Automatic annotation (TrEMBL):
InterPro entries: V-ATPase_116kDa_su, V-type_ATPase_116kDa_su_euka. It is a multi-pass membrane protein. It comes from Trichechus manatus latirostris. The lineage of its organism: Eukaryota, Metazoa, Chordata, Craniata, Vertebrata. This is V-type proton ATPase subunit a. One of its GO terms (cellular component) is vacuolar proton-transporting V-type ATPase, V0 domain. Essential component of the vacuolar proton pump (V-ATPase), a multimeric enzyme that catalyzes the translocation of protons across the membranes. Required for assembly and activity of the V-ATPase. One of its GO terms (molecular function) is proton-transporting ATPase activity, rotational mechanism.
């Protein structure tokens, strides 16, 4: 509890690391996660530090490993992840590991490059075969070409695409054939027509099956085209247009024999390429499988090695350049473990001179360390989101473990909804070691990280639901109601009592839609319900009025207790930091101001509950009126709650009025008196009088323990005056602002706690509306079709309950509970201006590896 109540005591230590053992010592420190390093080379650029070469080597190794992981993922080879984290590699193995990875990279790149070339050639040959098959039907050709010439040959019966016909015209006919992307066909045809001015004939047909693009690897639909043109200039333009549209051009055979010969050669080459490609892929997969076995340990080792050199760059060298000096923050409880880590590192390196450490005094504020476990971590994160606690101040997380889920449950009080939330959180807790939950997406990860918060919120909601007697907006009669309806009938009482009491008879029951139970009638109210609200209130028409009064007063009581507790915790801060004058001049006036006004309001609420019964409830004065009269001093006398009320209230107002100037001026005037009227070393201490500030005798009188702690235990307030330049105006203004904020905040914060009542009312009404609109309709349907209708109604009811009442209302109550803790509770004592202790620990490095992490 000590660590969670207040951050751990820290000290500044200086590490003296021999140059040959520094790497091994930091490796041992990284495995234990004991210290936070300070950068002693802040003025030195990152590229001018001592170990920049080693950092570049680590980055090169990370680049190679990123390439390996990328290739392994491409091959769909599973990446094994070890359960244990391997240690950082020894310096002797770093060069060997670098050489192995570089050779593996070169081999993989060469094999991958050859594979891609083979695959590209194969795809091109397949495209060529498809082109030959489709273009075979485009142009009619003579088996043997024999040139014949006629002066005026008849053209009516000859095809324009007949090669012999073109030859007879004396024109030089050319062909361009290939494949084009389906989406470019129309634009390609228009471009040919415009540029070539109609001196081309384009014939194209769609392939039956999509093919993979050799350049991009994308599977798309292709069109085979054949362009017939006349003249070399037209042919040159056609080829340029084909290049612009990224067409795949292949040679077109002139004769049928040439086509057949090319087809046979293509088939043979395709078979050979398939064989070579399969063997290449098998070899590449073997290499990747072997690399995948060790890639996890290599990635972790390189990350650890890089982290070690990053920390070494924060160290400074002594004048001989043989020893590294590091300054670290370390918890005082871990100093012995730190010494053992240095000894282990020196032993592993085989050094004759061990590394060592010593603590040094400092005036700097240490970082804040609060040790947490998986249960308390979520609550500590809620506090840290407001601000990391200042060094050694009271940590609100210890109390937030109880107050946060309780205030949430006050707004979310429903037995059924709380039990569902509890079961969901319990399921997460029982399966917290499941790997899929640890690797879940962002939203599910938030639920998983806050599983213990959800567990307590659900458990407390079950408790407050039993107090409210709400289960899905319905009351549960467990112990039997304390109200007896039959006692209201006139037949249950003697004739003499009929005139004194308003009783029921058959006529009253028949002619009145609303009947009122009178608790003053004997036998009607038999005693309070054993636990929570009596279930009969669920049938009452004035149920909302009764619950509003109850929840509103409960909210005020809980809020004032919560804020008063926060002011009280501030006293522990003043005691710890040896500022007792703040207790008398700040904390006690704050408590008096709070309790004399709002504490008295709680007293009146509880007093009225205890003193006035059902018989005297009609003459009970209004608490609101009495509280207002406390400040207005009415001329006419009021009934009052108790005798002497007016004198008590005037006394409380007098105390409140006196506490305000003390709160405004007490602390600044006291510090001014210390600064002007007394010298800090003029205070008598243990029989000695300290005369001069810089005297060595004064230091000896302070005691060796005080020197080791780095501060002297002088009279309260002296250190604050001497350590900082005294500025009375600034101190006065700060105290006035704080006092005004506190006095006004007591009113506004108390009103802010009424959100407990408002959200509890909203949750209950939403639950009631959901039940009335769905379940009540489904349950009232005729039995013939009721079962068929009830199933979808129940399913719809469950869906709306989960998304509206559990998720949306739960999130709303969660945010309001956070606000009550941050604004109304923590600002009474919590500064939250510290820096978090971030140790040099390998456990903080990412345990999973992806391309994004390594790139």
């Amino acid at each position: 509890m000590g660590s969670l109540f207040r951050s751990e005591s820290m000290c500044l230590a200086q590490l003296f690391l021999q140059a040959g053992t520094a790497y091994e010592c930091l490796s041992a420190l990284g495995e234990r996660g004991l210290v936070q390093f300070r950068d002693l080379n802040q003025s030195v650029s990152s590229f001018q530090r001592k170990f920049v070469g080693e950092m570049k080597r680590c980055e090169e190794l990370e680049r190679i490993l990123a390439y390996l992981v990328q290739e392994i993922n491409k091959a769909d080879i599973p990446l094994p992840e070890g359960e244990t984290s391997p240690p950082a590699p020894p310096l002797k193995q770093v060069l060997e590991m670098q050489e192995q990875l570089q050779k593996l990279e070169v081999e993989l790149r060469e094999v991958t490059k050859n594979k891609e070339k083979l695959r590209k050639n194969l795809l091109e040959l397949i495209e060529y075969t498809h082109m030959l098959r489709v273009t075979k039907t485009f142009v009619k050709r003579n088996v043997e070409f024999e040139p014949t010439y006629e002066e005026f040959p008849p053209l009516e019966n000859d095809s324009l695409l007949d090669y012999s016909c073109m030859q007879r015209l004396g024109a030089k006919l050319g062909f361009v054939s290939g494949l084009i992307n389906q989406g470019k066909v129309e634009a390609f045809e228009k471009m040919l027509w415009r540029v070539c001015k109609g001196y081309t004939i384009v014939t194209y047909a769609e392939l039956d099956e999509p093919l993979e693009d050799p350049e991009t690897g994308e599977v798309i639909k292709w069109y085979v085209f054949l362009i017939s043109f006349w003249g070399e200039q037209i042919g040159y333009k056609v080829k340029k247009i084909c290049d612009c549209y990224h067409c795949h051009i292949y040679p077109y055979p002139n004769t049928a024999e040439e086509r057949k010969e090319i087809q046979e050669g293509l088939n043979t080459r395709i078979q050979d390429l398939y064989t070579v490609l399969h063997k290449t892929e098998d070899y590449l997969r073997q290499v990747l499988c072997k690399a995948a076995e060790s890639v996890y340990s290599r990635v972790i080792q390189v990350r650890k090695m890089k982290a070690i050199y990053h920390m070494l760059n924060m160290c400074s060298f002594d004048v001989t350049n043989k020893c590294l000096i590091a300054e670290v923050w370390c918890p005082e409880a871990d100093l012995q473990e730190l010494r053992r880590a240095l000894e282990d590192g020196s032993r592993e390196s085989g050094a004759t001179i061990p590394s060592f450490m010593n603590t040094i005094p400092t005036k700097e504020t240490p970082p804040t360390l609060i040790r947490t476990n998986k249960f308390t971590e979520g609550f500590q994160n809620i506090v840290d989101a407001y601000g990391v606690g200042s060094y050694r101040e009271v940590n609100p997380a210890l109390f937030t473990i109880i107050t946060f889920p309780f205030l949430f449950a006050v707004m979310f009080g429903d037995f059924g909804h709380g039990f569902v939330m509890f079961l969901f959180a319990l399921l997460l807790v029982l399966n917290e070691n499941h790997p899929r939950l640890n690797q879940s997406q962002e939203i599910m990860r938030m639920f998983f990280d806050g599983r213990y918060i959800l567990l307590l919120m659900g458990l407390f909601s079950v408790y407050t639901g039993l107090i409210y007697n709400d289960c899905f907006s319905k009351s549960v009669n467990i112990f039997g109601s304390g109200w007896n309806v039959s006692a209201m009938y006139s037949s249950s009482h003697a004739t003499k009592e009929h005139k004194k009491m308003v009783l029921w008879n058959d006529s009253v029951v028949r002619h009145n839609k609303v009947l009122q139970l009178d608790p003053s009638v004997p036998g009607v109210f038999q005693g309070p319900y054993p636990f929570g609200i009596d279930p009969i209130w669920n049938l009452a028409t004035n149920r909302l009025t009764f619950l509003n009064s109850f929840k509103m007063k409960m909210s005020v009581i809980l809020g004032i207790i919560h804020m008063t507790f926060g002011v009280t915790l501030g006293i522990f801060n003043h005691l710890h930091f040896r500022k007792k004058f703040n207790i008398y001049l700040v904390s006690i006036p704050e408590l008096l101001f709070m309790l004399c006004i709002f504490g008295y309001l709680i007293f009146m609420i509880v007093y009225k509950w205890l003193v006035y019964s059902a018989e005297t409830s009609r003459v009970a004065p209004s608490i609101l009126i009495e509280f207002i009269n406390m400040f207005l001093f009415p001329a006419s006398e009021t009934i009052g709650l108790y005798p002497g009320q007016e004198h008590v209230q005037r006394l409380l107002l007098a105390v409140t009025a006196l506490s305000v100037p003390v709160l405004f001026l007490g602390r600044p005037l006291f510090l001014l008196w210390l600064h002007n009227g007394r010298s800090c070393f003029g205070v008598s201490r243990s029989g000695y009088t300290l005369v001069r500030k810089d005297s060595e005798e004064e230091v000896s009188l302070l005691g060796s323990q005080d020197i080791e702690e780095g501060h002297n235990q002088m009279e309260d307030g002296c250190r604050e005056v001497t350590n900082e330049e005294f500025n009375f105006g600034e101190i006065l203004m700060t105290q006035v602002i704080h006092s005004i904020e506190y006095c006004l905040g007591c009113i506004s914060n108390t009103a802010s706690y009424l959100r407990l009542w408002a959200l509890s009312l909203a949750h209950a009404q939403l639950s009631d509306v959901l039940w009335a609109m769905l379940m009540r309709v489904g349950l009232r349907v005729d039995t013939t079709y009721g079962v068929l209708l009830l199933l979808p109604v129940i399913a719809f009811f469950v869906i709306l309950t989960v998304f509206i009442l559990l998720i949306m209302e739960g999130l709303s109550a969660f945010l309001h509970a956070i606000r009550l803790h941050w604004v109304e509770f923590q600002n009474k004592f919590y500064t939250g201006a510290g820096t978090k202790f971030v140790p040099f620990s390998f456990s903080l490095l990412p345990s999973k590896f992806h391309n994004n992490d390594l790139a």
